[in-house]
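User: Show me a protein chain along with its predicted structure.
Assistant: Here is one chain, sequence first, then structure tokens.
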Amino acid sequence: MAGAIASAGATLCFSSQNPIKTLHFSTKTHSFYFPKPKVSAFRWNSVRPISPLHGFSCNCFSTVSTNTTHYEFSDGSSEVELRLQLGGQDVPSAKDIFVDADGTSLTVKVRQAGSFVILIETNSLFEKIKPAETIWYIDDDQLVINLKKQDLDLEWPDIVESWESLSAGSMQLLKGTSIYIVGDSTEINQKVARELAVALGYTPLDTKELLETFTKQTVDSWVLAEGSDSVAEAESAILESLSSHVRAVVATLGGSHGAAGRTDKWRHLYSGFTVWLSQTEAIDEDSAKEEARRHVQDGSLGYSNADVVVKLQGWDADHAKSLAQASLSALKQLILSDKKLPGKKSLYIRLGCRGHRPNIKPPGWDPSTPN
């Protein structure tokens, strides 16, 4: 699987149509907490849910409960600073302020008339902090909170992980590496790819449009005339020509005639980060996780080579941006687990896209031969 490129494996998202309820899931290295249905990133051993039918208020991205109308944020390299307006609230002493910071969560409350009022509450800070080194103080009518970053090299565009902060912050991680959207639905691939391209300032490319423009016929008529294998071969040639491109989001063909669904057509897909948009009938994250494991172990489905997996139950075109947001969050966590990944992808391209990084093959390598 492409997880060998990513070292830590792929990322899975799960879409649920169930009513909101609280879920908790932990792994050896990650713990995720979110109300369902929400979006959150995960590798093969953790889960992120999405609901196309109940809206996409993303807990892991931008779930912020606040009674304040304004806050100021700045990134000071080793720490980030959050300034919350206290306004006309009467805060006689520091004992009336409650600040709780832990990992990627932050809760700030102020005591008023014997009860606490929430100023801000999120479990989706842009990235992890060192909670023991949190400092806060009152500066005139502002509450100032300094949070120490765990990753000093990562620049925070905002205090929380949101569509806007992910769009702005992903560029520093991707370093121009292209993204390929794969999955059984060409329509879903196209719409999510467009959202990602706009957010990142990348060039949107669509293998279906390229094929139809070149051949002057629709893909459906081509399949009827020459069969699925012919279309898959042609798309594979398109992917080869696109593999040297940078800063592009490529929507690929879905279905049996798509190259990405075939294990022997991934040579040039490995040149970029791949996101598998996988529709599922799973009813919860455990069954979605098990389904993903079966796909990887079976290995017969080309999509299982993807770096990132987004599982969704149901589809609504209006929520393409939410799937794009889930993809960006998952890619962020993937790259942070190995910041050399974009460089490894680039090296793979420069060496001729042979084999599956890090097992780069010699010139003349034929992916169809077992050895």
